[in-house]
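Researcher: Sequence recovery benchmark, item below. Answer with residues only.
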C-alpha cells in the first residue's frame, strides 16, 4: 500500500464538523483555482451527515451495494433486514439465523451471502469491534474493514468518508474520482494514481471535501 495514497499514518481520529467544512472550502478555494471555481458553482458541501448510524447495518449496505444501483441495494437491504427481524436493529446474530435460500430469494448473490456471514461472524466473536471505529486512526479502520471477506480498499474509503466523516480521504480507486480529476483539470486521458495523489496534495488535510466536489461534476 502506498503511503502517498493513504491518510496520514497514525493520524488521530477526527470527524468533520460544519465549521470544518466551511474552513476547508475557504482553504481549497485559495489553494486550487480550478477546484475553487467548482466550489463556487456547486455551493456548500453536503458531505457531513449528522444523523446517527448503525455501523453494522452500514457495512451490510456497503456489501449489498457492490455492483448495484443505490435504489436496488436499498430495496435488498430492506428485505434482508425484514428477514432478520432487524428493520431497526440489525445484528450479526440475527443475520446469521437467516437461511441462505431466503437471502438468495431476497436478491443477495451467493458471494455476497458469504461476505455477510464473514462480517457477522467477525462482529460476533469480537475480531471486528465496530464500536471502536470512532476512536481509531484511518489506517486502523481500513485494516479492520479490509480484513472482512469481500470488503476492499474502496469499501473502507467510502466508510471513512460517508459514515465516519473523516476529513482527509483520497479514494483513488473510485472511477468517479478518476473522471472528476480528468474533467476538472482538462486531461486528455484518465490520470494515474500518482498524478491524482500529487494534484490533491495541496488539498490536505481536506481531501475528502475536494473529492466530494469532484463527484458533483457528474451530477
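Model:
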Amino acid at each position: 500500500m502506498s503511503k502517498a495514497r493513504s491518510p496520514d499514518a497514525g493520524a488521530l481520529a477526527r470527524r468533520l464538523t460544519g465549521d470544518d467544512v466551511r474552513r476547508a472550502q475557504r482553504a481549497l478555494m485559495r489553494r486550487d483555482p480550478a477546484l475553487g471555481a467548482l466550489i463556487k458553482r456547486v455551493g456548500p458541501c453536503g458531505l457531513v451527515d449528522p444523523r446517527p448510524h448503525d455501523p453494522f447495518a452500514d457495512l451490510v449496505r456497503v456489501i449489498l451495494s457492490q455492483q448495484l444501483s443505490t435504489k436496488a441495494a436499498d430495496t435488498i437491504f430492506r428485505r434482508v433486514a425484514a428477514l432478520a427481524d432487524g428493520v431497526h436493529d440489525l445484528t450479526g446474530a440475527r443475520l446469521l439465523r437467516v437461511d441462505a435460500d431466503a437471502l438468495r430469494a431476497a436478491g443477495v448473490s451467493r458471494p455476497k451471502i458469504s461476505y455477510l456471514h464473514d462480517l457477522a461472524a467477525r462482529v460476533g466473536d469480537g475480531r471486528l469491534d465496530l464500536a471502536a471505529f470512532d476512536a481509531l486512526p484511518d489506517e486502523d479502520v481500513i485494516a479492520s474493514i479490509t480484513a472482512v471477506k469481500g470488503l476492499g480498499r474502496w469499501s473502507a474509503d467510502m466508510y471513512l468518508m460517508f459514515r465516519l466523516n473523516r476529513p482527509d480521504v483520497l479514494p483513488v480507486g473510485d472511477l468517479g474520482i478518476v473522471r472528476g480529476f480528468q474533467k476538472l483539470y482538462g486531461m486528455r486521458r484518465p490520470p494515474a494514481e500518482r498524478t491524482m495523489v500529487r494534484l490533491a496534495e495541496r488539498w490536505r488535510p481536506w481531501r475528502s471535501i475536494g473529492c466530494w466536489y469532484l463527484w458533483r461534476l457528474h451530477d
